[in-house]
Amino acid sequence: MTETAPSPANDRTRVTTAVTQALGDVLERDLTGVSPDTELFGELGLDSTGVLDLLLRLEDLTGCEFDTDELEMSHFATVASLTDFVLAETGS
Predict the structure, then answer these.
(1) Is the pLDDT confidence value at 71 over 80?
(2) Domains in the chain, CATH or no CATH each
(3) Any residues with CB less than 8 A from the CB of 25 and at least 6 apart, and which?
(4) pLDDT in tens, 28-70
(5) Which among 5, 16, 40, 86 is placed 20 to 30 Å from 55, CA to CA?
(6) Contact call for residues 89 and 66 (beta carbons, < 8 A)
(7) In contact, 35 and 82? CB cutoff 8 Å
(8) Three-state secondary structure along the chain?
């Protein structure tokens, strides 16, 4: 049996799920149904202290250690922007 590599769409779905789960864990809220355009600070109430907790939780979920030198606040604008950052960091 031949194994196929995961498609980029599957990677995006997997990482979006991890981002949503991590956000829900950090914010202690059910975030089922959030959209990629949902704003992390404005709509979900993420704050600067939650960013560190969020990164640590994402590291647990993805198995990737994030380079803090690469972090920019724009990565935390929306679910989609954070997903893009995680995908870039994990090489997916």
Answers:
(1) yes
(2) 8-90 (1.10.1200.10)
(3) 57
(4) 999 988 999 999 999 999 999 999 999 999 999 999 998 888 8
(5) 5
(6) yes
(7) no
(8) CCCCCCCHHHHHHHHHHHHHHHHHHHHCCCCCCCCCCCECCCCCCCCHHHHHHHHHHHHHHHCCCCCHHHCCHHHHCEHHHHHHHHHHHHCC
